[in-house]
Amino acid sequence: MAEIHAKESPERVLELERWGAVFDRTWQGRIHQRPFGAHTYPRLAHIGDRTGLELLRTLQDRAVHTNRVDVQMEVTVFKLLKSGGRLAGALAYRRLDGSLILYRCGGLLLASGGAGKMYRVTSNSWESTGDGTALAYDAGAQLRDMEMVQFHPTGMVWPAGVRGILVTEGVRGEGGVLRNMDGDRFMERYDHERMELSSRDIVARAINSEVGAGRGSPHGGVFLDITHRKPEFIKRKLPSMYEQFLKLAKVDITKQPMEVAPTIHYAMGGVRVDAETGATTVPGLYAAGEVAAGLHGANRLGGNSLSDLLVFGKRAGEGAAAAALSTSRSANATLDQGEVDDAVAVLMAPLDRPAGENPYQLQVEIQETMSKYAPIVRDGPGLETGLEKILELGARAKVCGTGGSPSLAFNPGWHTAHDLHSMLVNAEALLRSAQERKESRGAHARSDFPKTDTELDDMNFIVEKSPEGMVVRAQRRPPLPDYLAEAVQHSYARYTPEERE
Ligand SMILES: Cc1cc2nc3c(=O)[nH]c(=O)nc-3n(C[C@H](O)[C@H](O)[C@H](O)COP(=O)(O)OP(=O)(O)OC[C@H]3O[C@@H](n4cnc5c(N)ncnc54)[C@H](O)[C@@H]3O)c2cc1C
Q1: Same domain flag for 302 and 376
Q2: How far apart are CA 103 and CA 365, in angstroms?
Q3: Which of 31, 58, 106, 165 could form a disulfide with 21 if both were Cys (CB 3.0 to 4.6 A apart)?
Q4: Is the pTM of this model over 0.85?
């Protein structure tokens, strides 16, 4: 996947430009490339600090102006349906009025994003409840690398209401420095070569250690300072950050440092897919983007998600379209009515339990559990306690209500009642996989196994549903072809054995 990503990203960026996204330029008129954490070379094509937003706008515009693309807004997919062992449809509801939709299809592509909402402090939106991972798991698909969730080193910490909102790595890319309460540029002690532009896991753990050692900022973070740059430079290069801090925290980042702390940001794990086509292990089901696993291994580098979406979104879209075209109409028309009726009954059940468990309370308890027992640095006993609590919460979620309202029309209590299942599947898979990986690697740090175990270099943990419940098993990857193995050795050769560790 890394090879495909490296080879195809440039063409996807140029394609976006042809569709209307205008990337920042060098003075010679070429696409400007900025450094991000752990990049060997400055290689991040960007649009100010709003690359994702422009990407969304461009692709949305392209989609709505393309013939035969039917956009259905505010629709939540609740269950994937199979026929004869292959994906054949989906049950969904419209959030605005609760009316149901039954889709029939020959190919379905999941692009439902991450699962950051299972943690209390996250940069992710309210939508990131890990639905896609749970939908695929329930349909029998394999998941992988679920232990690998990324803490972005810099989220806002103050005021409390904005805690977790992302402070882009672009601030450090443009020269921002991190200091503790004593004014020390502490990254010197954690990665004296790459300093603030070390990889996200190292910077996040460094901040965590500084705060833990009592050298944190007043609200439990550290300081990120870019005031040594000219105000015009900051406003031009980081316009969103300038506005974000001014509006939300009344901090002028051209004059004052920002207070930042790690925030849950990205799921490296997710649905297991075929690199070439995005096919999952369920025929007819495809996945791309943050919901899919594989490209980023244990540690995503900044900027690589957006290019991942472009490269593998295209490939998986083509894969799903080919599956749809090759499926005969009669095959995709046969959905099991009994299965549909059962799914509708489960969907509606919380509405009949107005006095059931409060879904918001359960959501908070899931977030508290994950934040406490699967934090930046984990350990075996903590993971075990976390798993016990998540299983208890799972039992309580089965009898939860809607928080009072019986209405189908935009009912957030009802929606939250169903988000719980997705969050619980993701949380359980994370905790079980993290228990199995008895080492520290990338974003997965264990205080009881602080070293990287080279025996696990090529080992992935695969999660799937069995009649007894969720199972996790270790699986070795086939060896890399020689030319790729050489490229990996070449890049490792830059580091001493201690640095590699
Ligand atoms: C604040 C922030 C800044 C970031 N900045 C960068 C960056 O600079 N560079 C970079 O490379 N990456 C960045 N990332 C990461 C990157 O933006 C995400 O990984 C990426 O947007 C994920 O895209 P996606 O299409 O997979 O999912 P999303 O963009 O999350 O889209 C998922 C969509 O699926 C919908 N959905 C979810 N569940 C269901 C359901 N059950 N039924 C129907 N629809 C559903 C959601 O509503 C949403 O619209 C950033 C992330 C955040 C949060």
Answers
A1: no
A2: 34
A3: 58
A4: yes
- Convert the pLDDT of each residue in 66-86 to its tens digit: 998 999 999 999 999 999 999
| CA-to-CA separations, 212 to 65, 208, 329, 373, 449, in angstroms, rounded | 52, 6, 60, 16, 19
Q: Which two tokens stand for residue 312?
A: 């593998």
**Nearest-atom index, ligand 1, CA of 77:** 42
In a domain, 370, yes or no: yes
List 152, 265, 315, 444, catalytic entry: 152
How far apart are alpha carbons 116 and 25 in whole angstroms?
Answer: 33
Residue 275 lies in domain: 75-148+266-335
Pick the atom of ligand 1 nearest to 304's CA: 11
Whether residue 470 is contained in a domain is answered as no
**pLDDT tens digits along 436-491:** 999 999 999 999 999 999 999 999 999 999 999 999 999 999 999 999 988 888 87
Q: What is the rounded distance in angstroms from the CA atom of residue 368 to the CA atom of residue 361?
A: 11
Of the candidates 172, 205, 378, 441, the residue annotated as catalytic is 172
Residues 425, 374 within the same domain: yes
Tokens of 55: 């990407």
Rounded Cα–Cα distance for residues 171 and 149 (Å)? 22
Q: Are residues 154 and 142 in the same domain?
A: no
Asked if the model's pLDDT at residue 111 lies above 90, the reply is yes
- What is residue 443's DSSP assignment? T
Q: In the block, which residue shows the tokens 């991972």?
A: 133
- Tell whether 270 and 140 lie within a shared domain: yes
Position in ligand 1 atom list of the atom nearest CA 306:
11
What are the pocket residues of ligand 1 if the criterion is a CB atom closer than 6 Å to any ligand atom?
Answer: 51-52, 75-77, 111-113, 123-124, 127-128, 131, 166, 266, 289-291, 303-306, 309
Residues 294 and 390 both lie in one domain: no
Q: Do residues 111 and 287 make contact, with C-beta atoms less than 8 angstroms apart?
A: yes
Taking a C-beta distance cutoff of 8 angstroms, is the pair 319, 111 a contact?
no
Residue 229 and residue 192 share a domain: yes
How many domains would you assign to the chain?
A: 4
In a domain, 29, yes or no: yes
Find tokens 């468990």 and name the residue.
357
Q: Candidates 290, 296, 426: which one to mutate for ligand 1, based on the most atoms within 8 Å of Cβ? A: 290
Is residue 142 in some structural domain? yes
